[in-house]
Amino acid sequence: MTKKVQVSATVNGETVDFLCEPWQSLLDVLREELHLTGAKEGCNNGNCGACSVLLDGAPVNSCLVLAVEAEGAEITTVEGIAQNGQLHPLQQCFLEGAALQCGICTPGFLVTAKALLDQNPNPTEEQIRFELAGNLCRCTGYDKIIKAVLAAAKNLQEAN
Amino acid sequence: MAAGSDQKKYKVIGTRPIRPDGADKVTGRAIYGADVQLSGLVHGKILRSPHAHAKIKSVDVSAALQAAGVLAVVTGADFPELKDKIAQLGEGAVNLAYLSGNLLARDKVLYKGHAVAAVAARTANQAEEALKKIRVEYEPLPAVTWVLDAMQDDAPLLHDDIHTDSMGNQSEKPSNISTHLHFETGDVGQGFKQADVVIEREFKTASVHQGYIEPHVATALWNTDGRLKIWTSTQGSFTARQQTAELLQIPVSQVTVVPCEIGGGFGGKISVYLEPVAALLSRKCGRPVKMTMTREACFEATGPTPGSYMRVKIGATKEGKIVAGEAYLAYDAGAYPGGMIGPGCMCVFSCYEFPNAVVDGYDVMLNKPKTQAYRAPGATHAALACETIIDELAEKLKLDPIEFRLMNAAQEGTRRVDGPVYPRVGLIECLEAAKASEHYQSSLKGPNRGRGVAAGFWFNIGLKSAATANVNADGCVTLLEGSTDIGGSRASIAMQLAETLGIAAEDVHPAVVDTDSVGYTDVTGGSRVTFATGMAVYQVGRKIRAQMMERAAELWEVDAASVSEADGVYSSGEHSLPFKELAVKLHEIGGPIVGSASVNPQGSSNGFGVQIADVEVDPETGKVSVLRYTVIQDAGQAIHPSYVEGQMQGGAVQGIGWALNEEYFYGDDGQMKNASFLDYRMPTALDVPMIETIIVEVPNPEHPFGVRGVGETPIVPPVAAMANAVYAATGVRMRDIPMSPPKLWKALAEKESS
Ligand code: FES
Ligand code: FES
């Protein structure tokens, strides 16, 4: 038996300490230990993006990150995107634009799209498609997701 | 854009409110099956067969039972004996022995990934470790994974107790062909004699998976009082309850199914896989047991849709009239009988007037997981065959492909080869809308580019739905329904109740509740929810309205017959109150109002659609790029147009994946070689353009608001539309699907060299 490892990280702005097995994925710890079940498991091998979270601002597949790698890192999950009870423009545009059907992929898309807009506030359709290509959605055909990201970019720019 | 309807009639229907469950789903709070947490929860895992076909000689679980953290182990022997027990499960009769054999194999494993035993342990990891300690002795058997091979007399036989049923006659010898279906209309021989052009072609399609992003998951608690509670992501909580109860041979009322949010289904989350197994484990260990499938298991042991072989022949006169059709369809059913051949046969000629036609269909078992419905099950295959030949005929006859389709389109009064006569349907309107579309009118220039069109049909079913609504003291209405919401149906159902009551969509609060809390409701499938559950809430609304009128009479002390209602305003003489204001007074005038209804509509909701694809083919690699794509569909009446468009776009993109990339690769050992999202390549955002939509609205006379189902038809035309577009771009007809780059590249090279 291996010993559990203690990890300290910032999750959605709060400092958290947790114990994990050295082999446990960040996704597993977020869901099972920290009870943040917004990040979803679709494949557990890096091919669907449902488990996307931001690790120091960059989108990662949390199923491919070991929880111990989160030591000292700043993690944002879908639960941390809305601020002070206010939806992020991306969340608002996803709702208004019907960019989700079953919604299982939505947390991953929101997190990845947020990373994109944080980097590039005015992306083209092609850039959005490229950045979101690691997130699978089986329901929507992507049309309304891409449009929602374009609308959110516009709203954010107008607000600034 | 909507064509053909009077949009002004409704206040709520046709608008685009935010879905009632939206906030939870964009903040990560919605509880999907895997998110369920219960006190004392333990984890279950399944041991799966490494062989595609083998006898199970023995299973020894003793070492696993001793492993760290293990609480219970079950095998097929833990299921009650179910030989020859038939159960009526929603959409048809099911032999329970096959269903339970699919959940945990008994004497034989019939496909790689077939479940053999299950373990519950304190942690998921301990359960995994314990699986390695189960000793199974197999005697491997030869496997077969291609439908035509499985039909041969000397093919490895899956079940020695299944004989071919050919219209009531049983074959003498056991066979992998479980059923031979035959449909006939007119005189095909005579029909072909009248034809000036006859085209006959063969087609093959590989198995594809539904590809829902959420793997199967279920949690079960067999309580000390004998009651079984199940939390699961399912398309039908009541059918999951019934299947579980039948398999465990306990009364349905002993089981409660709590439907969690569901991460996609497309037909693949109707059959149970984990629920009864988790229940058996829970009964043994007295703890709630959660089981989740891996993605690999989803591919290897759930779904898929049939692989198929089809040979179809169609004849037409030189004036462009179809005179005869003949189809031979062989669909694989996977490891157990009862695949998708029935709808395949009924759909193959369903878009056109065929005065003479004959269809033979074969349901064939082989060493793949038991096939499941996938969005218009069986129809996409058949449409590939029919619509490709229609395209070839149009070209031969020098007719515009849409014009040729219009000349032969099915309409009110057309008789389908399997018998039914169409009521008012909207294929002609869809074809007209396609023809008039900016897309079709635009010119497509450039080398290696081409445009294809195809039409498609799906039945759309009715079935049973129930709903209950409570009028709250603030005038809002709480709506309880049993239809699990996969794509926004809370919105489309709540909107129909709001319209009926004359209140705002936001004033109806829908909840999808467990099987103890609402009347029996069939699956979310068959494109039926907005149609049938919509009918239920319409009746609920009418019942509430009638009670509100009585209460108004009481309040105003007038004769009840003098009270009328229009647009949600109740009035009698000089008295008048809108719904909400009257509702606020209910506690003074007789107490709260509840309305309930249960419906079982038999009326048709037939859906037709047409799709237009523009593609560019890279001759160097055989890769197909989709340049432009339009989906045209008759929705009857779009309740929430955004979610109608979403169904159209999502179905089309699934179909594009089916056409271009998706396929189960089998090795000679009968094993699937690409059971991951990396190797089973579904379309990404980068693979498709925006999907344009044109909603046609030919109201369904069988529904109070004219609704037709919309969920399934969109996946019917795309494979054919893409094949026709690839032909237009390259001059090569692809009849072996998917048209993956290596196959297309090879076909292009062969054309070059010939
Ligand atoms: S679950 Fe991590 S990428 Fe699919
Ligand atoms: S909305 Fe269902 S997978 Fe994207």
Short précis:
Chain A has 160 residues and is an alpha+beta fold. In chain A, 34% of the residues lie in helices and 16% in strands. By secondary structure, chain B is of the alpha+beta class.
Break the fold down into its secondary structure elements and pairings.
The complex is a heterodimer of chains A (160) and B (754).
Chain A (H helix, E strand, L loop, with lengths): L4 E7 L2 E7 L5 H8 L18 E4 L2 E4 L12 E3 L12 H8 L9 H14 L5 H7 L11 H17 L1
Parallel strand pairs in A: 1-5
Antiparallel strand pairs in A: 1-2, 3-4, 3-5
Helix pairs in contact in A: 2-5
Chain B lengths: L1 E2 L18 H5 L15 E7 L5 E7 L1 H5 L3 E6 L10 E3 L4 E3 H8 L4 E2 L5 E7 L2 H8 L3 E6 L6 H4 L12 E4 L2 E6 L2 E9 L2 H7 L2 E9 L11 E6 L5 E5 L4 H12 L6 E5 L15 H11 L3 E4 L2 H7 L6 E9 L5 E13 L6 H7 L9 E9 L13 H18 L4 H8 L18 H10 L1 H4 L7 E10 L6 E7 L5 E5 L7 H13 L6 E5 L16 H28 L7 E3 L2 E4 L2 E4 H6 L9 E6 L7 E11 L6 E11 L6 H20 L30 E6 L21 H13 L5 E2 L3 H13 L1
Parallel strand pairs in B: 1-31, 2-17, 10-12, 13-32, 15-16, 19-20, 23-24, 30-31
Antiparallel strand pairs in B: 2-8, 3-7, 3-9, 4-8, 5-6, 10-11, 12-20, 13-18, 14-15, 14-17, 18-19, 21-29, 22-23, 22-28, 25-26, 26-27, 29-30
Helix pairs in contact in B: 10-11, 11-19, 12-13, 15-16, 18-19
The complex binds FE2/S2 (inorganic) cluster (FES) (2 copies).
- What general outline of chain A do the C-alpha atoms trace? globular
CATH architecture of the largest domain in chain A: Roll
Q: Percentage of helical residues of chain B?
A: 25-40%
Major sheet of chain A = 5 strands, mixed
Beginning-to-end CA distance, first to last residue of chain B: 46 Å
Spatial order of strands in the largest sheet of chain A = 2-1-5-3-4
Tally of domains of chain A: 2
